[in-house]
Amino acid sequence: MTIPDDHPRRKSLLSRQKIVDAQAAGLLADSALIAHGRGEAFDYLIGERTTDSAKRAEREALNRLFRAKSPVISMNGNTTVLAGREAICLAALTGSSVEINIFYRTDDRMRLLLAEIHRMKDYVMKKSPSDEIELERWKDMVKSVKIHGENPDAKIPHLEGPRALCCSQGIFQADVILVPLEDGDRCEALVAMGKEVIVVDLNPLSRTSTTASVTIVDEVIRAMQRMVIMAVEGPLNTDQDWDNRAALVDALDEIGRSTKLLSS
């Protein structure tokens, strides 16, 4: 698919095509594009941009990942295809591990997604995200990122179906989990386990958004890219307590302002 460089929605169309191609290759479920489109609809409402409230949430999320004892980034099929490289970079910078955890779980899909995330890991090793991090040191940082998901040996309590499956050395033992996708039941179950859950969800009214410890109302690629850039700088000490409800209200206000601009 050829998309002109000056197309106003080039990035969005490229993301759609990645989902289409990955689904055709067997990595994603048939409903993958539907889930992606639902997020796109909300991205229209915020003007396809990273809002000020999202930037604050991204910084708070990073601070929590840096403070965590056992941080994990939980990736499903869509987020692996769209932002897998950024997830590996973020994991390397924050000392997190990565777990592939999908709803429509099959052995073939898991095999393909795990192979893809390992290929991405090899790719990420080739270039440091900052001149301040020497390439050899960066390679060691990326190599240290553990990839979980192949052999789930634990279950999330009070959650049914494939989503309950997880790895004892990954999601199950994590104290802070970044979940860059909408999954209300799993978010509720993880919070009930006493975990801090950071989500990336373009819908500020979803159960995921309202249940999470920190909600980033942003498109997943933009959010992960910004967080990688900020993570290079390291943690930023803040004294203020995070109010996620207030952050969601700010996100709704941003949507209101964007829609007013569109209607004026």
Can you give a write-up of this model?
Helix 1 (10-24) packs antiparallel against helix 2 (32-45). The chain has helices at 10-24, 32-45, 52-67, 77-94, 107-124, 135-143, 184-192, 207-211, 220-232, 244-263; strands at 71-75, 97-100, 147-148, 154-155, 165-166, 176-179, 196-200, 214-216. With 264 residues, it is of the alpha/beta class. 52% of the residues lie in helices and 10% in strands. The protein has 10 helices and 8 strands. It has a 6-stranded parallel sheet, sandwiched between helices.
CATH structural class: Alpha Beta
| Number of E strands | 8
What is the H/E string? HHHEHEHHEEEEHEHEHH
* Tally of distinct domains: 1
How much β-strand is present in the residues? 5-15%
**Poorly predicted runs of 5 or more residues:** none
CA-to-CA gap between the ends?
Answer: 35 Å
